[in-house]
User: Fold these one by one.
Assistant:
Number 1:
Amino acid sequence: MMLINCPHCGPRAQSEFVYERTVDSVAPAGASNDEAMQILFTRSNPRGVDDEIWRHTFGCRAWMVVTRHRVTNEISQVRAVGPEALP
Ligand SMILES: [Zn+2]
């Protein structure tokens, strides 16, 4: 079972979280339609470490960026993002 260390709740089962997308597949607000399509749909899917956006949907509902190895599922970092990350 994969555990994710929520910055607000501590370690919880991955089943409490919902994966959204990788950080580098988020199109900037000012991107043209062509640029956004390129970023959203034609990114590579490499093996290795990636920054992913997750939400603790069945917990505190906060967003976070999880740095995870795509093959081993090893998580090296979890950081809060969004309104909950503000002091
Ligand atoms: Zn949480």
Number 2:
Amino acid sequence: MDSFVELYRASNALEAHALKGALEQQGVMVRLLGEALAGGTGELPMDSQEVGLLVQRRHLEQANKVLKEYHQSKAPWQCPSCGEQNDGHFETCWRCGCVPEH
Ligand SMILES: [Zn+2]
């Protein structure tokens, strides 16, 4: 059995689950750390409790790639044309319509 190493610490359970889904789509097995502390109620903790993501050591490199792509696609970006901050799910600047170069 491969040992698990910490890949990332998500700021909340929702982010952790979104990342877990993205990683598992790529065949990377994920364990969540910290979530059990809030368990028992069947509800996702909505506060800002950190949740660690653990992956097997042999998956670490691949997992980091998935993580990077995830953050690149979701991270807010600044418009190079007008300087406006845009949410990651916008592909064009909401203010001036500029398309950022990736
Ligand atoms: Zn703009």
